[in-house]
Sequence to fold (408 residues):
Amino acid sequence: MRPLEDALAPIAAGLRPATLPRPTSLGSLFWAISGIALQGFGGVLAVVQRELVEKKQWLTTEEFVEDWAVSQIMPGPNVVNLALIIGDRYFGWRGALVALAGMLTFPLFVVMVLTIGLAGIGHLPAVQGALRGMGAVSAGLICGTGIRLVPALRSNAMGRLACALIAGLVFIAIALFKVPLAWTLLGIGLPAFFWALHRIRTLATAAQELA
Amino acid sequence: MTGFGYGNLLDLLGCFVTLSLLSVGGAITTVPEMHRYLVAQNSWLTDSQFSASIALAQAAPGPNVLFVAVLGWNVGMASGGGPDNGPLPWALASAAMAVSMVGIIIPSTTLTFFAARWGQRNRERDEVRAFKQSMAPVVIALLVATGWLLTASHGNPQQAPLLWLLTVASAVLVWKTRIHLLWLIGAGALAGVLGLV
Fold:
């Protein structure tokens, strides 16, 4: 790679190589999302990352992080938003609807069967224990998935030091000081946005001067 | 005790539509407001019915937002007189469940759909690129923080050492290996049934 292309790498990261796999039909999208949703005990995100990024490779890690950012910043259930965006990316509004149906149909059926069937036994110690154990594991799955996404930051325009600083501050604010999400986004996300904007424009100017 | 009827379906819809648009960070962030509306203000559910609904939905596979379907169902079922009271409570429960899910899902997904499309159309703009680049480390840290908070809700590492160990072990396994996630969930459930955590 020439230095110019090196400098442009973060900007090019948003562009998708044409050779990556993609869902072949609305049906394959529906069944893929349904399968993912039904494996998602205590959170679906870890399964989405495993299945769509690592196994099927419908998304690169960078694309996944970008779509996840939009899903989190918008109101609504995050993984439902994520499925919607991924469906729209491949098949337009039809894909969005199909992905939404895949995410909700079978899990809704399962949860209603559980509600009707288990109404009387939810208070038993064994059931409570199982719920607590599954909860602890799903907390670990969410953490582990976050750590797995860290390589997506290597090509970030803000630079690795800034990324580490921002991630550290967000963790401290949310996990240790329980600052509400909105304030965290304003206090840390907004300065990060302006830093990223500055870096992207500096890189673009440098690239123009080289060319 | 409870007075939910078909006449209240629109109230229920209005409540969830509003909360849908406010639910940045997921529907779970609006639980305190749902509690205020369903339990404290209208007495459509008792405290224990409310928490049981959320715990049950958390244990089921799929997006966490399904706890709203269980809440809606139980509102209808409780006011209709319970499952052994003929077909009427089942009809009311189904209607309340459908209204709750439509209310919580449609507004936020519609908004996300158009926002994501706008972002995709304008992806070459510096502002859109800067937004995506700056949010990447933020959302990665949010994931780790969410996992931390979920475990911390059961007590600190001194109070619940085995629970924390289970969380840390599953985080490391997800990070470093490709072990199937259902094995991990199953192991957690087993540890809980045996009373280890």
Summary: Helices of chain A lie at 3-12, 26-39, 45-55, 61-73, 78-117, 125-148, 160-176, 181-210.
